[in-house]
Specification:
Blueprint: E1 2-7, E2 10-15, E3 19-23, E4 32-35, E5 38-43, E6 46-49, E7 57-68, E8 72-78, E9 83-89, E10 92-103, H1 110-148
Antiparallel strand pairs: 1-2, 1-5, 3-10, 4-7, 5-6, 7-10, 8-9
Length: 164
């Protein structure tokens, strides 16, 4: 089984028992994490594509170690200015292993969804009325501020005299 997983804004094509280096993630050595942002699954000839992710699909990973990448030299120079700066950078990485790729179908109850939408409609109606009150108060205060500003007097530059 092959999966495409979103990890820290990057998409990785993974298989079971495969090892990767990714940007540092929180967790200790030996911890197991479950990633549910799976975009694509391939099981033999069957391919499932999510929009944007597949519901019920997840990938279990384990953290093998935290390391630093090799040093990258950052050298800046401006010609004819006497400016040179040399810096180094080592990226923090985490080595992970793919333990399992699984798919489980979750059934959502329709009754709970309807109750949630009913309560959210009433709360949004209350929020809009309070929002209208605050915006009208803000508009009146901004009008007062603009009337109190004064423009400074114009200064005329002094005349230049030249020697003969």
């Amino acid at each position: 089984m092959i999966a495409v997983v979103n990890i820290d804004g990057r998409q990785l094509k993974v298989e079971k028992n495969q090892e990767f280096y990714i940007d540092r993630i929180s967790g200790k050595k030996g911890d197991k994490l479950v990633l549910d942002a799976v975009s694509l699954l391939q099981n033999g000839d069957k391919i499932t594509i999510g929009s944007p992710i597949i519901d019920g699909a997840n990938v279990t990973i384990s953290i093998l170690e935290h390391i630093k990448d090799k040093k990258i030299i950052v050298f800046k120079k401006k010609r004819r200015k006497g400016y040179k700066v040399k810096n180094g950078h080592r990226q923090m990485l985490t080595k992970i292993k793919i333990d399992d790729i699984s798919v489980s179908k979750k059934k959502k109850s329709v009754k709970k969804v309807e109750e949630d939408t009913g309560t959210s409609k009433t709360t949004t109606a209350k929020k809009t009325t309070t929002a209208k009150k605050t915006t009208t108060a803000k508009k009146t205060t901004t009008a007062k501020k603009t009337t109190t500003k004064k423009t400074p007097a114009k200064k005329t530059p002094a005349k230049k005299t030249t020697k003969k």
